[in-house]
Amino acid sequence: EPSDNASVNYVVYKGDYYVSNENIFMYKVDPETLETKEKVDWSKFIAVNGATAHPHYESDGTTYNMGNSYGKNGSRYNILQVPPQKSNCTDTLEGVKVLCSIAPMNQMKPSYYHSFGMSENYIIFIEQPIKLNLLQIVTSKLRGKAIFDGISWEPQFNTYFHVVNKHTGEVLPGQWYSKPFASFHQINAFEDHGCVVLDLCCQDDGTTLATYKLQNLRRSGEALDQIYDSISRAFPRRFVLPLHVNSDTPVGKDLNPLPYTLARAVKDADGKVWCTHENLYSDDFEKFGGLEFPQINYSRCNGRKYRYFYGCGFRHLVGDSLVKVDIETKNFKVWQEDGCYPSEPVFVPVPNAMAEDSGVILSVVVSPTENQSAFLLVLDAETFRELGRAEVAVQMPYGFHGIFTS
């Protein structure tokens, strides 16, 4: 029985709000009252076994997502397109279509993914060496094992980038790859001088998922610190994928034409392009434990060249600071307060603003301290100074992702 847990994110399809996880079920909610309206099953509309909780949106409301399918022809990574408009008031996912299907490197061990990138014209999917052993997962209940036992980090494999034309569904013929890394969240992607520039949060070790087992989360004090010290940190990185590589492209030459990034892309003798990242942070950034839950001024900058992103610093198993990073200078600003654990920073722009960072950052901050209220924190997105907080006199769980609506 598929899980109906939908605790990862709020998503929008055809103007309606849903809570979503990575399985086949979502719940439509009333954005005013947060009342649950109906349960929606992806598989009733299209042949997938789930979809991510991180879709991408066009300005007209067209939504893109990804979901796996498993059948007689093996497993597939599917890029999904949901139309922007309803045909009637009861519409949910009607009209969704598979824009493109990509075969995994190993049909019985496809890669796990949590999100994907989108530029103006392309979808960028990362096939990373976190593998799903389908046989072990399907038989887990019979064997008395958890589904997680079928997920493994296999660093003997490299990480591959797939680029798809989102207007035609064509998979570009180029082959881009990098050393093995794990990534859960993309920051942004944009096109420049025949290249796709892809920014994302990366870890060099993909065993992090094993950290979040119940027996670990129930630890405290030094025992919990030991768990944290054992895991790899996620840091923001930039890759450049040159799109126009052919038999005439020279071997062994850096194909990155962009003067503002140190990322490299070198064609090998076999025609593949080996990509080496640039770090999007300075050395003193590491003391904040890396960065996850990245956000940008999405309505203005997604799919376009940009300068700023925001995220949570992780000096603990959950985020304990908020960070603003300037990509051009690699300078950063931090908000933190002892005993406080902020959620993903949500950027709310000033209407018709000239500056990219004109707006506010919203984050729900919780604390394990008894009698300390949770609060909604409001920061000036430009200066990162606190503008105010709204306290809620209840204990709240730590949240993952959110959305702003007005």
Q: Number of helix segments? A: 5
Structural class: mainly beta
Major beta sheet, strand line-up: 9-10-13-14-19-18
How much of the sequence lies in strands comes to: 35-45%
Please give the radius of gyration in angstroms.
Answer: 21 Å
Number of domains: 3
* Helical fraction: under 10%
User: Which term fits the overall shape?
Assistant: globular
Taking the alpha carbons of the first and last residues, their distance comes to 36 Å
DSSP E strands, number: 29
In round numbers, the mean pLDDT is 93
Low-confidence parts lasting 5 or more residues at pLDDT below 50? Answer: none
The major pleated sheet works out as:
6 strands, mixed
Outline the secondary-structure elements.
Blueprint: E1 9-13, E2 16-20, E3 25-29, E4 36-41, E5 56-57, E6 63-71, E7 74-82, E8 97-102, E9 117-118, E10 122-127, E11 130-132, H1 134-138, H2 140-143, E12 151-153, E13 159-165, E14 176-178, E15 182-192, E16 195-203, H3 214-217, H4 221-229, E17 235-242, E18 264-267, E19 273-276, E20 278-279, E21 291-295, H5 298-301, E22 308-313, E23 321-326, E24 332-335, E25 341-342, E26 346-349, E27 359-366, E28 374-380, E29 386-392
Parallel strand pairs: 14-19
Antiparallel strand pairs: 1-2, 2-3, 3-4, 5-6, 6-7, 7-8, 9-10, 10-13, 11-12, 13-14, 15-16, 16-17, 17-20, 18-19, 21-22, 22-23, 23-24, 25-27, 26-27, 27-28, 28-29
Salient structural properties:
406 residues; mainly beta; six-stranded mixed sheet; 5 helices; 29 strands; globular
